[in-house]
């Protein structure tokens, strides 16, 4: 699956959320604004439920929060670059500054896992990480992550 089919420019942003809770709220608000049938609260609850099972902070300043929703038919992505890294309970205990959030339909587990794996692989590329961290705005961030 092409990343640009699940990640819209409107769901890509640079922000200073300040905390793990605030960044999950920001993700929820971005999704709800772009997909009106969804409520920010439902998205937030899905992300928090997954975080309670274990942090999605995968190390190297990266987190991949994700969740399932029963009222969507296509995966929805959100990409955030934090202006200041935030504590995220990552496996390496380091703060996070790049987050790719993925929300998938309840019945699409296999696609969900392959999309997460593809994003984790992309974000393990040091060249791409360097480019992402050098971006100055959301448009540039979207360009780099979808290239």
Automatic annotation (TrEMBL):
Question: Which molecular function GO terms apply here?
Answer: protein kinase activator activity; protein-N(PI)-phosphohistidine-sugar phosphotransferase activity
Q: What range(s) does the PTS EIIA type-2 domain occupy? A: 1-147
SUPFAM superfamilies per UniProt: Phoshotransferase/anion transport protein
InterPro entries this protein is in?
A: PTrfase/Anion_transptr, PTS_EIIA_type-2_dom, PTS_Nitro_regul, PTS_SugarTrans_NitroReg
Q: Kindly list the biological process annotations in GO that this record carries.
A: phosphoenolpyruvate-dependent sugar phosphotransferase system
Database matches in Pfam families: PTS_EIIA_2
What is the name of this protein?
Answer: PTS IIA-like nitrogen-regulatory protein PtsN
Q: Which domain of life is it from?
A: Bacteria
